[in-house]
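Example (one chain per record):
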Amino acid sequence: MKMKRAIIGMGSNLGDRAAYLAEARRLIAERVGEILDTSSELETEAWGFEAPAFINQVIVVGTELEPLALLDELQRIERELGRTEKTRWSDGQPEYHNRTIDLDILDYDHQTYQDERLTLPHPRIREREFVKTQLEELDLLGGIPFPENAPTRTEPKGNVPYSYIVVEGCIGAGKTTLTKMLAEDYNAELVLERFADNPFLPKFYKDPVHYAFPVEMTFLMDRYQQLRNLLTARDMFKDFVIGDYFIDKCIIFSKNNLLADEYNLYKNVFDTISSFLPKPKLILYLYNDAEHLLRNIAMRGREYEKDITAEYLNSIQDSYIGYFKQQTQIPILLVETAKLDFVKNPGDYQRIRQLVEAKYEPGIHRITF
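Predicted structure:
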């Protein structure tokens, strides 16, 4: 079979990073094919969460393996070096673990290829400056056959100075919609709350006294697991992380929903595990009145939310504001959204974009348009 030339991107941010890259190169040379060229190793900043920086490298390999066979072999090497499998959330977003090593096929003999497992060339190459730098070092960037609609940064989408942003708000504020829009626009890794996975939520809205504790504990453990994985994860083709909740949401809702003895027990658990979790660098809180929130809730038509009252929404919103007043380490933007429609009005969305591109001192900043 004719030898093919594959370009592979490598990265590591756990343990002895250089040693993991060296061992990956050894296994690739042993199982995939001869390494024909290597870029210099480039250290790139992690996106926060007390995670170490990444070391990245690009290598060129001569191989007889077809694209999917190559992908299978690289994934076997990842697993042997401590990388766990990529999984999928119920909303289709990828979740990652243990980035001792990350191996991506960037290009395969300047061919185009696409199926459900693999797209070639890698669709995000031109969005990552460090990958472009290493490809240019090896004089490889010009020959890669990018499709005309491949993502590119020739027209920058804007600079966001935060590694981890949270969009928060009361139920029905539109935080998930805005989070998705910003993630798409800024090439951010998306973290969405998994409401569908909490079996107690519909029961709680019908009978909050009996189901408050199990619903809050289920949310706490699920949020903890999801955010804990972020500590050892980074998608090398994403610029920062943006989510539609933060772990302190647990304490805000539980204080409002639980009886005193339940809350004391819950807080002990929360205090123990939350100290291990990442903290946002910016919180964008979408503030709206209960009338607008109820209208939004009705429009999305979730059966289990039909019994939510204005009184409950006001109590949750008051809890958020009271909690934010105690925070002195994080910039918090309290954005009045009653007159905004960032979904239908591009001008309103542009105002939100300008907010996340600016720098702020810690504490509450009230924003009114």
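Caption: Residues 85-98, 149-156 have pLDDT under 50 and may be disordered.
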